[in-house]
Amino acid sequence: MKLKHLLAGAVIAAAAGPAAAQTLQIQASGNSGSFVDLFYKGWAERFNRMTGEGRTQIEILPFQAVVPYRETLDAIGAGILAGDMQAVSYFAGRDQAFSIIGDLISGYDTPDQVSMFCQYGGGKEVLQEAYDSIMPGQLHVVGCAAFTREALVSAVEINGVDDLKGLNIRAPEGLATAVFEAAGASPVPLPYSEVFSALEQGVIDAADASSYADNARTGVHEVAPYPLYPGIHSMAVLQLVIGQRQWDAMSEADQLALETWYTAMMTSMARASFIEDERVKTEEIASGTVTVIDWPQEERDKLRAIAVGAWEAAAAQSDLAEKALETHRSFMKKIGLLD
């Protein structure tokens, strides 16, 4: 019944003609009630006040509220959803370009650098090209950005690249696995829900997990008291993609409002996430429950040099993936991350 209602609403909006008032139902990556979900919804209210009655409105739906997370693009094409606000890398199975755009493991030092790549370094444009290659004329990329740097949680001290050798590390399939393997670790594919028990039982030594604050909330630091923060590897790129029909039905003013709103929201979320991570980190250090490890820049640079081989192997799988990597490299040279 829910799907039928959404489909009917989308068809009506699509048929209403240019600059028609419409409500864009967008499925996002935040679990219901989570920091991300609540942040998105708060900012959706701001957008709706900005545009006002009779103009474009948005509704942010939580993770998998309507369809499984890898099926959102097809749902947009079918008119069931109007948009997707999830991680770009969810669609790496369609082309390795999405993996390279979505999380260039160990590539950047800060979320702001990733967001600059999207906004000023060609990231948004190459992402649009990737979507045009798999669903021509059906999707419009409003923007992309990163908001947090994932912390690596560990039951043992990892003070540099050499300490990764021989460790069993939980990592998702794809670039993260390839980079850790190249550094001498043994990646173990596990769902996030099993990270705590695997660390507690010694099945793994460390884990690619979530932000510092989220890891602390789930109690992972109780069994992994040596978190690496700021993290050394992952900064997922999130996106706002909406159906081309819905985009074309918006007024130019509403299109500009949505682009501006997305950039402002992601910038604000990055700042709020950083403040929360720092608050929780300070409290845990004061309590003596953790030893936070912050790799020096030379160790981060060593891991980046190792990661280049994994990037190149992934890029070799498609022409578009190669273009995505070259776009990253060009921007990284401009800001001094690569020679």
TrEMBL record:
Keyword terms of this UniProt record: Periplasm, Signal
InterPro entries in the cross-refs: DctP_fam, TRAP_DctP_sf
One Gene Ontology cellular component annotation held by this UniProt entry: periplasmic space
Superkingdom of the source species: Bacteria
Protein location: Periplasm
Transmembrane segments: none
Name of the molecule in the record: TRAP dicarboxylate transporter-DctP subunit
Classification lineage: Bacteria, Pseudomonadati, Pseudomonadota, Alphaproteobacteria, Rhodobacterales
NCBIfam families: TRAP_S1
First-listed, main subcellular location of the protein, grouped into a coarse class: periplasm
Pfam families noted in UniProt: DctP
Entry's Gene Ontology BP terms: transmembrane transport
Signal peptide from the UniProt entry: 1-21
